[in-house]
Design goal:
The protein is built from 28 helices and 13 strands. By secondary structure, it is of the alpha+beta class. Helix 1 packs across helix 15, helix 9 packs parallel to helix 11 and helix 10 packs antiparallel against helix 11.
């Protein structure tokens, strides 16, 4: 049924290409207009139901202290190396003016007043973390309302003020805080352009035609426009995390161009057989489009599996990325065949530049010019796959050993929160971070906020302050703020270690398990530890706890779907195990680069950082889905050859060799797109880019071109073994064969009688 539906859709789009293209153009225009008129801004809400940090946030919100809103900080030091803020003079006067002008900015609720505190008592300013002990560094903390009332204009106003005052005051002025994190322009724009240009170059080299190279790019741009605009509208009704547009662009470009490449390659095969372009487009969608629909569906279901973590921002982020992937699938079976129909027979031959490249060397390259030599490009791959199939044991053992070795660093995986200290020195946030760490200690960059409800116990707050201050992981405790209406108290606590340090997570755990219960006792009072560092620590712990559930769910789903598709037990079992190997190796390489610093300079990483807590789970869901793209595309072709010939060895060699060039080109495109994001400034974006690029490279080379043919050769005819009772229970899968689409009778499968 799916084959017939795709055949009708593809052929219809090819017969009426301009109608379909116009419909997509209208859809893209409406999506962009809707995003402009109704779209919202992305927002990071790093909380989840039931977490201690979430309970702290709820208490703070009840108290109305303002600490639930956005914050920024302005860090200053005198340009005169001999001046301090303790002494009356130009530096102190300049600091007063800066604090006053910051307080006048729109939407600023208030600021700390280091000069006023110094005038009242110098020790209080030092203890409150406003002026360093040597008087050389001062911090003006800026309090804003919640994010819903702010926009990027507020960040621009603060940055603009800083630029103006740098020229007027004898101060070095740096800025940071979560206002920058939320409203700074996200990584992506330049990376997307670099990825598209790299993909275009690879497509041109693969097809030798500018027209053939342009069609997948055009389709992907259309799909990305609609998908990201829809994501922006979604941000109006729920908190879409700030990484979702970047990750959506990254994955959307990769899968969109890949899916188009699969369909385009099959379309050119049909043109080489002499089919009419419109019929060829319909057949291409009916055959290559089936693995695309299945693979895209697998990516979507895998990503939606993130809901098992019960972390709202991950669930919404997964939905947002899934929207982009679904858009690309729809574009692949509607917009692309319209492009193919509009291009007509020109796609059957290389363009002038392509022909020139192909005829520069005689022999093997020259044979590509003639349609009759369509199999020539597979000759080299056929020899390679045949070689692997003749020596399956050493190749299987060697490749598996290589991937297991690459996986070993995972044993040292540490999740955490890369802070502003991991940004490049060109960013003011990094320079502000370094100044604060120099003047007040590294923990000042990641304060904890303890929210306490005394519940009528007047002595609980004194005990709480004393016991918290006595903890060896706490450097200082700022003065307690008590809300008169509710009695809720908030304590800003500065750890001795930086936000990304493992010792900070240990301090948070110790406060919750020992320190706070000791101070509160068994009465009705309660206290919770919040703040950004605590929230990320909590999210990391929850994702680690839920990771096995996600892995089990995705593996089971993938096994069942592949068994349905390929009518086999061993093929899906082998597929999920090999995918685990490639993902494990990618995790290991990420640990080596980001935690150990191996090769970090190549991607602009200036310091080692822990793996962002939610990234391993996100990567697993995305990578398992993407790995299934190549698995389905390759095995569909192997299955076609097996049903055509009935010979397992021939099917493996022919199926793998005929798809090798396309899989290699598709993998190169994905790797190029993902690596273009690995050089972004944000460590999180670097992790997504490098992790995805590494896994795809390993999957398309070591796994698909070595392990798959080696293990399938070892299994022989049992590849397609299926118990008879199970064969009767399973409905027919969505991915058929080329033979079936032509109405030819396939050979019988190997079924246990």
């Amino acid at each position: 049924m799916l084959s017939k539906a795709l055949l009708l859709v593809g052929a219809g789009a090819a017969r009426h290409p301009w109608r379909v293209i116009a419909a997509w153009l209208i859809a893209a225009t409406l999506a962009v207009l809707a995003a402009i008129a109704f779209g919202g801004r992305t927002a990071d809400s790093m909380t989840a139901p039931g977490l201690d940090s979430q309970r702290a946030a709820e208490l703070i919100e009840r108290a109305g202290t303002g600490q639930e809103g956005m914050t920024a900080q302005v860090v200053v030091t005198p340009l005169d190396s001999g001046a301090t803020f303790f002494d009356p003079g130009s530096a102190r006067t300049a600091l007063t003016r800066l604090q006053t002008e910051v307080e006048r900015l729109p939407h600023v609720l208030g600021t700390s007043d280091p000069v006023g505190v110094l005038d009242a008592g110098g020790d209080a300013a030092v203890r409150g973390g406003l002026v360093s002990a040597d008087g050389r560094i001062a911090v003006v903390r800026v309090q804003y309302p919640d994010q819903s009332r702010l926009s990027a204009k507020d960040l621009d106003a603060l940055v603009g003020l800083g630029d103006r005052l740098r020229a007027e005051l004898p101060l070095r002025i740096e800025m940071g805080g979560n206002l920058f994190y939320v409203f700074s322009d996200p990584d992506g724009g330049a990376s997307e352009l670099i990825g598209i240009l790299a993909a275009a170059a690879i497509l041109f080299l693969a097809f030798g035609s500018l027209v053939a190279a342009a069609l997948p790019i055009g389709m992907a741009v259309f799909g990305l426009t609609v998908g990201v605009a829809t994501m922006t509208v979604l941000a109006r009704v729920t908190d879409v995390p700030t990484f979702a547009p970047v990750l959506g662009s990254m994955v959307g470009l990769g899968v969109g161009i890949d899916y188009a490449l699969f369909v385009l390659a099959r379309h050119r095969e049909y043109l080489a057989r002499g089919l009419d372009p419109r019929e060829a487009a319909g057949r291409a969608v009916a055959t290559a489009g089936r693995p695309v629909v299945f693979a895209g569906g697998t990516v979507v279901v895998s990503i939606l599996g993130l809901a098992v973590a019960n972390v709202p921002f991950m669930t919404v982020g997964g939905i947002a990325v899934s929207i982009v992937v679904l858009t690309m699938v729809v574009a692949s079976v509607t917009l692309l065949p319209a492009f193919l129909g509009a291009a007509g027979p020109r796609l059957a031959r290389a363009g002038r530049i392509g022909r020139a490249l192909q005829t520069r060397k005689p022999g093997r390259l020259a044979r590509r010019r003639h349609p009759a030599a369509g199999a020539a490009p597979a000759a080299g791959w056929r020899r390679w796959v045949g070689h692997v199939s003749r020596h399956p044991v050493p190749y299987a053992a060697g490749a598996a050993g290589l991937l297991l070795t690459a996986t070993l660093p995972v044993l040292g995986l540490r999740v955490g929160l890369p802070d502003d200290g991991s940004l490049p020195h060109s960013r003011t946030e990094r320079r502000a971070y370094d100044l604060v760490a120099e003047g007040f200690g590294p923990g000042t960059n990641g304060p904890l906020v303890i929210a306490a409800d005394p519940a009528g116990d007047p002595g609980v707050l004194d005990r709480l302050v004393a016991t918290v201050a006595a903890d060896p992981g706490i450097a200082s405790v700022a003065p307690t703020h008590i809300d008169r209406a509710t009695g809720i108290a908030t304590l800003v606590v500065f750890p001795t270690t930086s936000p990304q340090d493992k010792a900070t997570a240990d301090t948070i755990a110790r406060l919750r398990a020992d320190v706070l219960p000791t101070a509160i006792g068994h009465g009705p009072a309660r206290a919770h530890v919040g703040g950004a560092a605590a929230s990320l620590s909590d999210v990391g712990r929850r994702t680690s706890q839920r990771m096995p559930v996600l892995v089990a769910a995705v593996l089971a789903m993938s096994f069942l779907l592949l068994m349905l598709v390929f009518r086999s037990v061993l093929v899906p079992l082998k597929a999920v195990l090999l995918n685990l190997l490639s993902i494990g190796a990618a995790y290991g390489i990420m640990v080596a680069v980001f935690q150990w610093g191996w090769g970090g300079a190549l991607i602009g990483l200036e310091a080692t950082v822990p793996i962002v807590s939610f990234i391993p789970m996100f990567l697993f869901a995305i990578l398992f889905g993407l790995s299934m793209d190549y698995e389905v595309f390759l095995l569909s072709r192997v299955r076609e050859e097996y049903l055509r010939t009935g010979d397992d060895g021939t099917a493996i060699v022919e199926g793998v060799s005929r798809t090798a060039r396309i899989i290699t080109s598709a993998a190169l495109i994905m790797v190029a797109v993902f690596l273009s994001f690995a050089v972004a400034e944000s460590p999180s974006t670097k992790m997504f880019g490098l992790g995805l690029a590494t896994a795809i490279f390993i999957d398309a080379t070591v796994v698909r071109m070595v392990l798959v043919p080696a293990t399938m050769t070892l299994l022989g005819r049992t590849n397609w073994w299926l118990p008879k009772w199970l064969d009767r229970l399973l409905p027919r899968g969505p991915v058929g064969t080329d033979a079936e689409s032509r109405g030819e009778a396939p050979r019988p499968r190997l079924v246990d009688r």
